[in-house]
Amino acid sequence: MKPCTAFIFLCCCLFACSKPQYPLVEIKTDLGMIELEIYENEAPITAKHFLANVDKGIFAEACFYRVVHMNNQEGREIKIEVIQGGLFHDSIVDSMPTIRHERTDQTGILHKDGVISMARNLPGSASTEFFICVGDQPQLDAGGLRNPDGQGFAAFGKVIRGMDVVRKIQMQKEENQMLVERIPILSMKRIR
């Protein structure tokens, strides 16, 4: 091997070895699998909370229940496209611990296509409900106008496999953004 070729080979090996090994979470539904990469270094509070919920089996009775697309946001000036999942029932969600809000201008994780983020009401009220972006959604970032407080939502990972499943879920029959038939999450587990 020539010295130049050997140097390039070594650099490629070092780059491949230095790529972070993020935790992976697999979501199984009747419509297919979704695989998530969780950015625990960039969004430590949110990622740790989500992974702890996965590890504790909190999502055993979870589902995807809300879909937002361009045709079901009448009267909204700022439109977004997402699917939302979690425990669904307010009585359960409200009893779960909440976490401090991590803004996108702190974490650097923007609401791009496939990014997973925490649903919330007020900043610091996120617990178990999450959403996945369909397409880029900059209005969900810090300073975005979708939420009147301008704090945005706490993004903490990304779909690395299964965006076709996410899009399938988004196209299911809905009424006022709520799925007519919720999509059960058959399992949600850490695979790395």
TrEMBL record:
<dbReference type="Pfam" id="PF00160">
    <property type="entry name" value="Pro_isomerase"/>
</dbReference>
<dbReference type="InterPro" id="IPR044665">
    <property type="entry name" value="E_coli_cyclophilin_A-like"/>
</dbReference>
<protein>
    <recommendedName>
        <fullName>peptidylprolyl isomerase</fullName>
        <ecNumber>5.2.1.8</ecNumber>
    </recommendedName>
</protein>
<feature type="domain" description="PPIase cyclophilin-type">
    <location>
        <begin position="21"/>
        <end position="192"/>
    </location>
</feature>
<keyword id="KW-0697">Rotamase</keyword>
<keyword id="KW-0413">Isomerase</keyword>
<dbReference type="GO" id="GO:0003755">
    <property type="term" value="F:peptidyl-prolyl cis-trans isomerase activity"/>
</dbReference>
<dbReference type="InterPro" id="IPR002130">
    <property type="entry name" value="Cyclophilin-type_PPIase_dom"/>
</dbReference>
<dbReference type="InterPro" id="IPR029000">
    <property type="entry name" value="Cyclophilin-like_dom_sf"/>
</dbReference>
